[in-house]
Amino acid sequence: MQISTSINPVTEAGRMEPKAYDAVLLASFGGPEGQEDVIPFLRNVTRGRGIPDERLEEVSHHYRAFGGVSPINGQNRELKAALEAELDARGIELPVYWGNRNWDPYIPETLQKMYDDGHRRVLMITTSAYSCYSSCRQYREDIGVALTETGLAGRLEVDKVRQYFDHPGFVEPFVEGTTAGLAQVREALGAVDGSRDSEIRVLFATHSIPTRDAEAAGRSGSEPREFEGGSAYVAQHLANARAVMAAVAPNVAWDLVYQSRSGAPHVPWLEPDINDHLESIATGEGGGPAVKGVVIVPLGFVSDHMEVAWDLDTEALETCEKLGVQAVRVPTPGVHGKFVAGLVDLIRERTSEDTVADRPHVTDLGPWYDVCRPGCCENFRGAKPVIAEAGVELGAGH
């Protein structure tokens, strides 16, 4: 099932001129690959916050349950191979390197490797599609800090593709998965004709973030914009969810829910939590029929990493079982052919040899900026060197 795309000239000013890039960097979060890696990995994730190892051990149980191995590194190896194959099939000669924020291969070492291999102009793709500090700006800071610390600032140029939350290559796999998931839930309820759709809810799940970070998402003093829900992060998810439901089942009810909250209890985060929401809708709280079936769509995630494998496939599905609710969890894009092709299209948008002019997108919020506005998604903990931001000079030719 296809969804419509359009062109939004309002964001034209956010484009970068095409360039002759000579390599691609796939940047991701990273994860442990054995029990002995778990605490060192969590130290990396929480660096600068003064969290003792005893507390880290308390929150390590989901990694311990999987033998200390996060799925994310294996998935990134598969994605890197899929990107290489798609680039090769199109005759695009760009090598793909992979670097992580929190585990080997680390971004600074990867940048040094790229430079040593003779590359000077790099285009970065991240495994985060939406706009907020941890999904976009923190990656841009990672590169800014790495260029500074390695001495490569002014010698190696690194740009970043736009946030691709509403690129059809990212959204259409969710359309396919939601269509199939809804059919499964209808069958489980014995109503494939849709006669029990009032008892079915589609839950679009994404990572919760502190409300303070959410309010900063997409904000810029130089170009203020107002967003639904007070945040680009929230607005982008809502817009995507509407696009998916319009293509799949316009009359089926749906909600945006959050998961994977961490941090101090007194700090407000985006809500509702998926498990709390399941408890509520299963009893018909707030009016309407009690929900008997749910389709869980991990809309905020690129692959089936730990937040999906544990928070959804373990905790949320256990909650559904306890409540007697039929549940199906939809796949993430992973290495779906449309997703991989879409990432290569994002690369082609930016290259001088083979530019895609129309910048496809499925919501009115897109296409997002190639170059973020000054101060966009700033973190309240303090500023760091950052790339791919208007008015910032860092790296060769910025």
TrEMBL record:
It comes from the Bacteria. InterPro entries: Ferrochelatase (IPR001015), Ferrochelatase_C (IPR033644), Ferrochelatase_N (IPR033659). Fe(2+) binds at residues 207, 307. Gene3D superfamilies: 3.40.50.1400. GO terms for biological process: heme biosynthetic process. Its main location: cytoplasm. Fe-coproporphyrin III binds at residues 70, 139. Pathway: Porphyrin-containing compound metabolism; protoheme biosynthesis. The keyword Transferase does not apply. It is found in: Cytoplasm. One of its GO terms (molecular function) is ferrochelatase activity. GO terms for cellular component: cytoplasm. It is an enzyme of class 4 (lyase). It catalyses: Fe-coproporphyrin III + 2 H(+) = coproporphyrin III + Fe(2+). Keywords: Cytoplasm, Heme biosynthesis, Iron, Lyase, Metal-binding, Porphyrin biosynthesis. Its EC number is 4.99.1.9. CDD domains: Ferrochelatase_C, Ferrochelatase_N. Belongs to the ferrochelatase family. Involved in coproporphyrin-dependent heme b biosynthesis. Catalyzes the insertion of ferrous iron into coproporphyrin III to form Fe-coproporphyrin III. This is Coproporphyrin III ferrochelatase.
